[in-house]
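Need the bound structure for D-glutamic acid, inputs here:
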Amino acid sequence: MSDCNRPIGILDSGIGGYSVARQVRQLLPGEDLLYFGDGAHVPYGNYSAEHIVQLARYMFRFLEARGVKALLVACNTISCLLDRCRDGVSCPVFSAVEAGARAAARMEAERVGVISTVFTHNSRCYPEKILALSPRKKVVLSCGCPDLARLVEHSLGSPDGMARVEENLRLELDGMVRRDKIECCVLGCTHYPLVRESIQRLYPGLPLIDPAEEMAAGLRDDLERRGLSAPAGRRGGLTIYTTGDVDEYALRARQVGLEPVDQVAFYPPLEV
Ligand code: DGL
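Answer from helper R.:
Posting the output first, comments after.
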């Protein structure tokens, strides 16, 4: 296969990375995308670092073995541990946290909120990176959401499920928005942009930062620089692998507008 025609790898603990795949498709419609979601083990955000590294390496190896020309870590939680996960990966690797922090640092706002998983919150990855790029900012963190990614993963399209998502969003975001008066909010877990409309309805006027936009733009620049962009006029495909429920992954892809999908296939989970 010519180097230009090699796929882009995208990985996440679950369907959260669909928010990144969607953005990449919009910006780079000619690229083939190979998605891996670890449905058997989602959510990662309440696990220990060792456990996350072990699970993430399995996905990195899967995508590396399929010759991806770039790898998007469409999971903030794994991105916090990138140096421990990327061993043996020969292509450029893009981090959701790097992208989100860069986008936040560019905002005029001084008080930046970050909503994320418990692991991402505890790692302090976001404030460290944002403050390194923009020292005058005041970064305000959510307390780390133990339930939100799991709720989003299984609730799209269900009125009861979405009511629970919105109740959880209020629990996690009300303090930052109303008491701490954040001026913008980083969606620091890739599941959250999938419910962006709900967040906007609950907090109208609050600017939201989705790291996916920055990731897709960074990928485009990298491919152009290396002369590896897919040929113009080509229509890219999307193949999804999951260690979880194939039918649910296909349904969720349709629900978030990720169509057409060439194939959704099962891949055995890492036994831990
Ligand atoms: N979507 C992931 C993230 O960006 C992980 C959510 C989870 O598995 O807890 O952090």
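Comments: The mean pLDDT is 96. The longest strand covers residues 111-116.
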